[in-house]
Amino acid sequence: MILVHVDHDRGAVDAVSLQALTLARCLDSDVQAVIMGGAEFAPELGEYGASIVHVAEHPGLTDYAPQATARAIVGLINSLAPTAVLGAGTARGNEVLAHVAAMTDLPFAADCTEITLGSPVRVTRARWGGNLLEESTVITTTLFATVFAHAIPAVQSPAAGAVSAFTPELSPADLAVVIIERAGAASAGVTLAEAKVVVSGGRGMGGPESFSLLEDLAGLLGGTVGCSRVVTSAGWRPHAEQVGQTGTKIAPDLYIACGISGATQHLAGCKNSKTLIAINTDPDAPIMQIADYAIVGDVHAVLPQVIALTRAATGA
Ligand SMILES: Cc1cc2nc3c(=O)[nH]c(=O)nc-3n(C[C@H](O)[C@H](O)[C@H](O)COP(=O)(O)OP(=O)(O)OC[C@H]3O[C@@H](n4cnc5c(N)ncnc54)[C@H](O)[C@@H]3O)c2cc1C
Fold first, then answer.
1. How far is the CA of 233 from the centre of ligand 1 (A)?
2. Which pLDDT tens digit goes with each residue over 253-303?
3. How far apart are CA 263 and CA 285, in angstroms?
4. Ligand 1 nearest atom to the CA of residue 262, by list position
5. Total-model pTM
6. Where are the alpha helices (DSSP H) in the chain?
7. Ligand 1: distance of its center to the CA of 275 in Å?
8. How many CB atoms are located within 10 Å of the residue 62 CB?
9. What is the DSSP secondary-structure string of 182-224?
10. How many CA atoms does the CB half-sphere of 149 hold within 13 Å?
11. The domain 2-175: what is its CATH number?
12. Domain residue spans in the chain?
């Protein structure tokens, strides 16, 4: 049996956790999920192949608490003895599984794109934001691994999704790290990780005021705004909007990169976009080489035209 840790945040299941459930099904016909609170998500997890959804119920688990989550998972490992425990290759998913590995004194393989169970276990891991693939052998009794974000699509395969509630034993030390406040978080609406359309700006936007153009276009397309690290470092936009190796890794249907050069660290976060449009004054910028559609021009001239044409086409 493979146990998959499913993360959720403010009313939504983490998309990469669903990808981890999908990969787990390729490895074992018996896949179960563990989630901190969130029994209401059990039907959804059943849709993605979880036969049982183990719901940890504890007053300290109402929001993200990495060490407490790991302690709850370790308790479940002791009673269920799964072959492997998988999670999401996100900052949170990796943090939780790293705690699980430390508590059990076993190895942990983060950001796997492929897993072959056996003795020994073989994994392929994405390193440096996916620019390098590392093949490793893991010598362990129970595999702890996370699935690299967007390495595979989440695919449904209905199973029972039966809820099995349990109360983990947590000490005050397990709850040393909890969320006490969220500052500068993205405003309400579609999140960067979930958006089907992301309109993203880089240094070439020239300043924070120009991002109103991106907000207008994103609004017309039902999407959200993203940006490069130069932009967050300059304080033009919040870090929650940063796309890339040290930001959010996304795979939207449409990514529009405006005044972004396409450094490897940025591409690590957006190269899985289904369609990529780049607007740049430099035809030789790296992003123009990988774009499906490359528009050579100044964002301040091109974007108003794109917005006007989109308004006309959508009747907005
Ligand atoms: C460890 C590490 C982690 C990193 N993580 C990330 C990350 O997660 N995300 C990330 O984005 N970066 C990351 N970076 C930074 C990355 O290396 C680049 O510095 C950054 O992505 C560049 O941002 P940019 O494309 O906005 O700026 P630039 O590279 O300066 O590019 C600006 C582009 O705008 C174009 N331009 C200029 N004026 C206009 C105009 N008027 N109209 C149209 N185009 C114009 C230029 O031709 C140029 O191509 C990381 C770096 C390191 C070392």
1. 11
2. 999 999 999 999 999 999 999 999 999 999 999 999 999 999 999 999 999
3. 9
4. 25
5. 0.79
6. 15-27, 42-47, 66-80, 91-104, 211-221, 229-233, 264-270, 286-290, 299-314
7. 19
8. 12
9. --SPPPSSS-TTT-SEEEEE-GGG-SGGGHHHHHHHHHHHT-E
10. 26
11. 3.40.50.620
12. 2-175, 197-314
- Fill in the amino acid letter for 54: H
Domains 2-175 and 197-314 share a fold: yes
Length of the chain as a residue count: 316
Name the residue at shortest CA distance from atom 4 of ligand 1: 265
Q: At what angle do helices 66-80 and 91-104 cross, to 10 degrees?
A: 50
Give tens-digit pLDDT for 140-182. Answer: 999 999 999 999 999 999 999 999 999 999 999 999 999 998 8
Q: How far apart are the first and last CA of the chain?
A: 51
| Topology given in CATH for the domain delimited by 197-314 | Rossmann fold (3.40.50)
The ligand 1 site (C-beta within 6 Å) comprises 202-204, 228-231, 242-247, 259-261, 263, 265-266, 269, 279-282, 285, 298-300
